[in-house]
Specification:
Elements: H1 2-28, E1 33-49, E2 52-67, E3 82-87, E4 93-98, E5 108-116, E6 122-126, E7 132-145, E8 148-151, H2 164-193, E9 195-196, E10 202-205, H3 210-214, E11 221-225, E12 228-229, H4 233-241, E13 248-254, E14 257-263, E15 266-270, E16 273-277, E17 280-282, E18 286-287, H5 290-316, H6 328-339, H7 343-362, H8 369-382, H9 388-418
Parallel strand pairs: 4-7
Antiparallel strand pairs: 1-2, 3-4, 3-5, 5-6, 6-7, 7-8, 9-18, 10-17, 11-12, 11-13, 13-14, 15-16
Helix pairs in contact: 1-2, 1-6, 1-7, 2-5, 2-7, 2-8, 5-7, 6-9
GO biological process, one term: proteolysis
EC number: 3.4.24.-
GO molecular function, one term: metalloendopeptidase activity
Length: about 425
């Protein structure tokens, strides 16, 4: 149960923040957002607030923000349609009823001749006396079809009516919010747990090591190496590793006294590389500082971003295979393992996953945010958008290929963890 809760919290938070980025920037651009969904498939829970339906769906494999103007979103009234109408106090149509046998109060009927529900907002047709009449349509009118109501979307509230910059920012905001979430999580970890000071303090000395033989003891603070001042454990570690079988002098601070210690690191081979080792252990003191926690959050987000890009490069060059990739099952099993070591580790894992999702979505592949941004780039170069049908076909093929990849990766996960 702990693993399930951890997975739901981690994966749900990452997906929520990603879609929240799209949602906020769509709203700021004046785009009508029809649905904000977490998950795919059948609806489990749905709440309508304002003009947006907020849903939780059965399959927790992602989410989406459905904006007006997307494929299959446009509503057209064909000539010959018989519709019911309700008017507001300005004699504008505020509700259009389709496929409804039951007559609502104050309903008028019309056989449609022409209609424009996007730009000029009007409907023209024959009334019950067979007179040709024309009605204006309110900007917030709704269409009721078989009991389901949908708000019409005037063209200026559709995604494709917006400037290239606003469209690109709306799409880019999803991955951007994943990086922001990662930064926030690392900042919270820094505030709660503290920031490693990275001071060159000796936490312990291995018995029989060069360090013990030279007289280094627990609690010593190394201040200089071969006369050169240092202030971080990383500097100490690198100097020792780069000096196998080479005599070196360490200046240490011990209980208010200064000591000078001469020793020679022994040689060890790690990944076919010769490295120096003196047999000391490190345990960084933790410091709670809000300003340092902020810089720690930014620094960790940047560090992990670079590491993930490095791993992507290894995948492209063939150093990794598809067997090394994990899908939802692999993420669940990894979260289950991480959850054993406390919520701080779960938070750290969530931050790394959020960066991973942000980077994956920025890849210039069809159906991903990066693929859509690539088409916007072509539009900026050409000076006009690519044909929507052609772009839609490319994204459809991309979705199919991603689904196949997801099936392969999930099957690998099942094989790896359960058989």
């Amino acid at each position: 149960m702990q693993s399930i809760i951890a997975f739901i919290v981690v994966f749900g938070s990452i997906v929520f923040f990603h879609e929240l980025g799209h949602f906020i920037f769509a709203k700021r651009s004046g785009i009508l957002v029809r649905e904000f969904a977490i998950g795919f498939g059948p609806k489990i829970l749905g709440i309508t607030k304002g003009e947006t339906l907020y849903t939780i769906r059965l399959l927790p494999l992602g989410g989406y923000v459905r904006m007006a103007g997307d494929d299959m979103d446009n509503i057209e009234l064909q000539p010959g349609y018989r519709i019911g109408m309700q008017l507001n106090d300005k004699d504008e149509i505020e509700k259009i009823v389709l496929n409804q046998n039951k007559q609502l109060p104050d309903m008028l009927f019309l056989e449609v001749e022409k209609a424009d529900l996007q730009k000029e907002l009007w409907i023209e047709g024959y009334d019950e006396d067979e007179h040709l009449v024309r009605y204006d349509v309110a900007r917030d009118a709704v269409i009721n079809e078989n009991g389901t109501e949908t708000i019409i979307a005037p063209y200026d509230r559709q995604f494709n009516s917006k400037s290239l910059g606003k469209r690109a920012m709306t799409i880019f905001a999803g991955p951007l919010f994943n990086f922001i979430l990662s930064c926030i999580i690392f900042i919270v970890i820094g505030l709660v747990q503290g920031i490693p000071t990275n001071e060159p303090v000796i936490a312990d000395v291995v018995k029989g090591s060069p360090a013990q033989a030279a007289g280094i003891v627990k609690g010593d603070v190394v201040t200089a190496i071969n006369g050169k001042a240092i202030d971080s454990w990383q500097e100490l570690s690198e100097a020792i590793q780069n000096s196998p079988k080479k005599e070196m002098t360490l200046d240490v601070q011990r209980g208010g006294e200064k000591e000078r210690i001469v020793l020679t690191p022994k040689e060890v081979v790690v990944n076919e590389q010769k490295m120096g080792q003196i047999g000391v252990q490190y345990s960084s003191p933790m410091e709670k500082n809000p300003l340092k926690a902020f810089s720690y959050g930014v620094e960790q987000t940047y560090t992990w971003t670079m590491k993930i890009f490095e791993l992507l490069g290894m995948l492209v060059t063939g150093k990794f295979t598809l067997d090394a990739l994990s899908g939802p099952v692999g993420i669940y099993k990894a979260t289950e393992e991480v959850a054993k070591y406390g919520w701080t580790n779960v938070m750290n894992w969530a931050a790394i996953l959020s960066i991973n999702l942000g980077i994956m979505n920025l890849l210039p592949l069809p159906a991903l945010d990066g693929g859509r941004l690539l088409f916007f780039g072509f539009e900026a170069i050409r000076g006009k958008p690519i044909d929507r049908q052609k772009e839609g076909m490319v994204h459809f093929v991309g979705i199919m290929l991603l689904m196949i990849l997801m099936i392969v990766v999930t099957w690998n996960d099942i094989q790896r963890f359960f058989f």
